[in-house]
Protocatechuate 4,5-dioxygenase beta chain (Martelella radicis), 279 residues
Amino acid sequence: MAEIIGGVGTSHVPSIGVALDKGLAETPDWKPFFDGYIPGKKWMADKKPDVAVVIFNDHGNTFFLDRVPTFAIGVADSYKPVDEGWGPRAVPEFEGAVDLSWHIVDTMVENHFDPLVCREIEVDHGLQVPLELFFGRPEHWPVKVVPIWVNTIQYPIPTPQRCWEMGKVLRKAIESFPGDERVVIMGTGGLSHQLQGSRAGFINREADEAWLDGIANDYEKYRNMSRKDYVDQFGSEGAELIMWLVMRAAMNPHVEMKHRHYYAPASLTGAGMVVLENA
Ligand code: DHB
Ligand code: FE
């Protein structure tokens, strides 16, 4: 059966990709941010997963506001990086883990989650940037992907509790897949940020630090918070953090935090990552 070898939570801010495109990773603004990912990258290189299940949101790039699925899954052979308006990037296409994707879709439906199933779709920075952060800029990605989209853009977004339940079903799906794939689950988004309205520019370092500490083994409060609590504490876009709950729920109740990194501000956000292994 396929095996979950770990879970990571990470920011997916587009300007991280732009910093890489422009060769700014070693500049004083960006170096402390990228340096913090070195242990995470090394962990990934050592663990050598075959598949990354990436939980992220689209940002009006492939779904626009006229049609927004609450949950969607890709079952495509490959996914092109979508051009978000600043031209095509030097990011290779992502190969899909097609059979695992279909198995996850089927398991979800069996367990009363009914995602939009996407046979042809492109992926934005929500997926591109986390892979760049953990795998660098290879000619070919060393993992296949299963993209899972969660609506965190257009209200009503799903509840944190629903995201948690989906993580449980995701685990059931992966662990019942007849294969020997080593799977890493990547929950993306956050940390605190708000890009609009009177609180534009809002960052809550204290809440971010507590989140990074708590998501490993003190997660009950985050699991029980309301959507409004997420917006209050982390900002309207910081509510993307509910997608880390999908990853966390797919892990054991007790996990070991292998790596943790926080840096703020990265662009307009609190940023960072955790790397978790089942205890
Ligand atoms: C920005 C965009 C994001 O999707 C995100 O999660 C954080 C920041 C931005 O445009 O700065
Ligand atoms: Fe985002």
